[in-house]
Design brief:
disordered N terminus
Length: 320
Amino acid sequence: MASTKPQDTTGSAVPAEPGAPAGGGVDREFGIRARSQRQQIVRRFLHNKVGMTGLVLLAAMLLFGFVGPLLYSTEYASQNRNAQSVSPGTAGYPLGSDAIGRDLLAGLMQGVQRTLLIVAVFMVIALPLGLLVGAVAGYFGRWVDSSLMRLVDLILTVPLLVVLIVVASNFPELRTPQGVGLILGLFGWLDLARIVRGQFLTLREKEYVEAAHALGASDKRIIFKHLIPNALGSIIVWVTLAAATAIILEASLTYLGFGVNQANATSLGRLVSDGVQAASTRPWLFYFPGIALLLIVLAINLIGDGIRDAFDPSNRRVRA
């Protein structure tokens, strides 16, 4: 009986590709390598128009904030008494200037940097805290779950904005981009803890968790190798929503007088707050920072939608 293996030009069978996983990593009939789960997720995201739109928009804002100052020589700290409150398009001031002659375009670049720095510090603190508390509560249950969740409920009884204002007013030295991110991170992990706890309560009853227990896997391995990866969809949704919320909260704190307050330093929230009173007479001071703020929030939300769809196993619009 003739061999059904594909033949090369010399008539010999095509060998399996090196490193191919056992059990059908390479389709022997057609010579096609099966994609891993990670490759499928990346492929689905790259074919998701919403997610890619958000990624391109966020990349553009990153280039504007971090590469723009290298190409635009004017510094935000420099003041020009002869160019106070000039309108956009005036020579040397593409987006106009404020009441003390500072270039608004340079301010927007610095504002994007500081706002994204606040988000980064917030995530570095809130994400591990929320994951740790939620994972421990949901996985071990019983009195551990009750104790941790009662603590979370107690903190949630106080409005977050009130807590942030109290902390910022009593610790004025924290009114820097890093300090504001720290304050937001210390009180912004509560929702994530509840989300992760709910996911773990369901996932710990799955068959693969019982199988891992039977094989002698440690609790740490089960949490980090099995449960957290299967809860990534919900975690990513929280990350995107929380990042956008952190930007809005920073703007709210600044508007109330408790946000970033450094000499010759600014954030998008502070620019918006400073421009509110001049919105009727010098609208560029309010609308340009507001648009930049909205673009960042929109980009983050679009990326979150795209990643969530990419992790959804039911998404079959892109072939694996």
